[in-house]
Amino acid sequence: MGVEMRVHLFFPLLAFVFLGITAGDGWGRGLALFVLLVAAVVTREVARLLVAAWLGLRLRAVLLLPIGGLFAYANPESQENANNGLGQYVLAAAGPLANWATGLALMAAILGASSNVQLFSYPIITSAHLLRSMVWMQICLGLLHLLPAYPLDCGRLIRTSFARTHGYAPAGRAAAGLGQALALAAMLGGMLLHDYWLTIAGLFIMVGAQIEDQGVFFQSVVDTVRMREVMLTDFATLSPSDTLADALVRCVHSLQEDFPVVRGPQLVGIVSRQRIVDALRNDGNGYVQSVMSRAFQVARPEDTLGTTIRRITAGRGLSLIPVTESGRVVGIVSVQNLMSSMSLLAEQRRIERQESSESG
């Protein structure tokens, strides 16, 4: 349905951890316990995806962790709607309610089938009693998201409330920091109490908080960087009256994949290196104006990087955006150089933030 499903590497690796800590009960039961965790996560995320569709939110990807999924939205409007109004509470409640409803339904079915199953004995989750674990895995995953630790559901609501007065980026960093602190406390508590479930939960809350913190930081970069900071100013252009053979010579001496086509100072089209080669092979020599694309978008030097990314995402097959000022092309932004520039900018901002915190 157009949503990319990703699984964090630690999630499948957790199966080997389960096999290790349940070795006394046999590898089959350890693997079955891991499958029960996967089932609880799937139950939660299916409910959240259905609610997101009902709310009209457009998702780009879902990253699955043992504590649940992290949503990446396809556009800023969807992200804003997910973090504001009634939608944020419905989306936050969907996961825990789905897990609790499933757990209670399983409990009723098991007790109805046999009264000899001890559902309330300790430990409630163990490979030695899979029926009991099946019920409590669902219930405990729902209870986990009541903790005020970001990126758990309750932590998200706290972050959104904080963002209304302090801004999205500071709220995201504060919530991620709180989530990491609570995760560290859970990990230490789990090791002291010899409770591996608490340790595992803390570990993956920590992982989720770090991923979300990187996402908030990246968003702050794309919303503050202007096109003049990342556009290429040393670039080649073509004329619509150039022959394809002459254009191919220009391509040989340039690293560009796409070229603005200008008539005087006026931008009239865009043509790619591959389009020139294909036209020469199939139709022989001709003129650039016969193969250039007249459907293009332009950016201004003061536009933000986030605005340009949304334009690239919205335009199918769009690989180059010229940057114009007073109708004249002053720079270009391609998908190829944009990804490199974004990585370098993110690293630059991170270094500046570290230096600022150390000096402060």
Please bin the fraction of helical residues.
Answer: 55-70%
The average pLDDT score comes to 83
Query: How is the largest sheet built, in terms of strand order?
Result: 1-2-3
Report how far the terminal alpha carbons are from each other: 48 Å
Number of domains: 2
| Gyration radius from CA atoms, angstroms | 27 Å
Question: What low-confidence regions span 5 or more consecutive residues with pLDDT below 50?
Answer: none
Strand content: 5-15%
Oligomer: single chain
Structural class: mainly alpha
Largest sheet: 3 strands, mixed
Number of helices: 13
The shape is elongated
What is the string of SSEs from the N terminus onward?
EHHEEHHHHHHHHEEHHEEH
Q: How many DSSP E strands?
A: 7
Give a written overview of the molecule.
A hairpin with a 2-residue loop joins β4 (258-263) and β5 (266-272). The protein is 61% helix and 12% strand. With 360 residues, the chain is mostly helical.
Task: Give structural attributes.
single chain; 360 residues; mainly alpha; CBS-domain; 3-stranded mixed beta sheet; two-stranded antiparallel sheet; elongated
TL;DR of this structure?
The protein is mainly alpha-helical. Helices cover about 60% and strands about 10% of the residues.
